[in-house]
Amino acid sequence: MKKQTVMITGTCALLVAGGATWSFANAKEESTVKEVNAQSTTVAGTTASSLTLEQAVKVAEEYVGGNMVKAKQDIEDGVDVYEVDVRTPQETYEFTFNVHTGDLIEIDGDLLLTENQAEPALTQKDAETIAIDESGLTDVKEIELEQENGRLVYKIEFALYEDDADLVIDAETGDVVKMDDELLNGTSEDGATSFLSLDELLPFIESELGEPVTILESEREYENGIPLYELEVMVDHVEYDIDLHAETGKILKQERDD
């Protein structure tokens, strides 16, 4: 089956799909989009497979009070999505919707720069306080409010030596979602290092798998507040993807890489 691409550009662009052409500016809406809020980012008034590109554009424009400059249907990580760019005087926002569920997946652009429908539980000041406590740093360069994977997050950028380091916090719960490597060497309340070294954790992995292990790649991050190593390892000529708790050595996920 050939992939069909639908694109809108400009406020009076044409919408072409299935052999029919409509003037987007004058098109009738068959379903009314009632609201989108930060807690439930499924487009109200839609059912599975019913979200249209026109609806997605309207939701995006109303969310930040701007005007659409580009919109299209695409495939992202195997999922059918609508990508809608909306411009305000302060910022250009990139919205991503799941075509089939109506979920608002991503908003790329700082929601703190304009009035919008996002209502996070944490204030900007709350997020800054948590970030400073978690990182031990105080030189905050920038804070942005965005949406990732269906949830609102604060992205906090710190000045660190001659470089920058980022920390991402869930704007509803205050959990640390991600933290750059440069910030992962802090200490816990009892003074123990947060992340064990891979040399320290390797015996845990080999004991669990029962074979000698060769680490091919490793990445450290926080996920839902949990410090992780994401590893690619070789065990008896077979590659595995492993998520490892970075403080306890417990294997949280193990997948064979076929």
Automatic annotation (TrEMBL):
Residues 1-27 form the signal peptide. Residues 51-107, 122-179, 212-255 form the PepSY domain. It holds the Pfam family PepSY. The keyword Signal applies. The keyword Calcium does not apply. Keywords: Signal. InterPro entries: PepSY. This is PepSY domain-containing protein.
